[in-house]
Amino acid sequence: MFPSFNVLGENLQPCSTEPPTGWFRDGCCNTDRSDRGLHTVCCLVTDEFLEFARQHGNDLITPAPEFNFPGLKAGDRWCVCAQTWQDATEAGVACPIVLEATHEETLQIVALETLEQHAD
User: Fold this and answer.
1) What is the bridge-based pairing of β-strands 77-81 and 39-44?
2) pTM of the entire structure?
3) CA distances in angstroms from 76 to 17, 58, 73, 80, 90, listed in the order given
4) Of 59, 19, 21, 62, which Cα lies nearest the Cα of 40?
5) Residues 40-59, mean pLDDT to the nearest whole number
């Protein structure tokens, strides 16, 4: 497997292993062609963001034990879909992000300047 890079052009850093996040549940916001949602933005989720995502069909709050998903609460780190985060930004409810753990593929959807404005 080739190394992955973040939006800063550096090696991609882990986002969260508790709970394990990412398209591959490897703790990083890695992606591949089968990841149609582009789960590449490492977020420090807030209540406002979680509610926004739920209202738009992505319930990250409710546990789903069958998928080993504990449900998220404010303060957790999670790899979210780049478009969901962009939509939350436009709605004024974007949560902080971790640039070092946000995959470079995010730049297909979100401008680096926008990401930098929300860096934790």
Assistant:
1) antiparallel
2) 0.94
3) 10, 16, 6, 12, 22
4) 21
5) 97
Pick the closest to residue 113 from 8, 6, 30 (CA basis). 8
Sign, CA dihedral 27-78-20-18, equals: positive
d(CA 40, CA 30): 6
For residue 1 the two structure tokens come to: 């497997």
The amino acid occupying position 58 is N
CA pair distance 24, 31, nearest whole angstrom: 8
- Cα-Cα end-to-end distance for the chain: 29
Contact 60, 54 (CB under 8 A): yes
pLDDT in tens, 83-101: 999 999 999 999 999 999 9
8 A C-beta contact, residue 44 and residue 97 = yes
Cis peptide before 65 (omega within 30 of 0): no
Other CB atoms within a 10 A radius of the CB of residue 91 amount to 13
Residue 11: CB atoms within 10 Å? 10
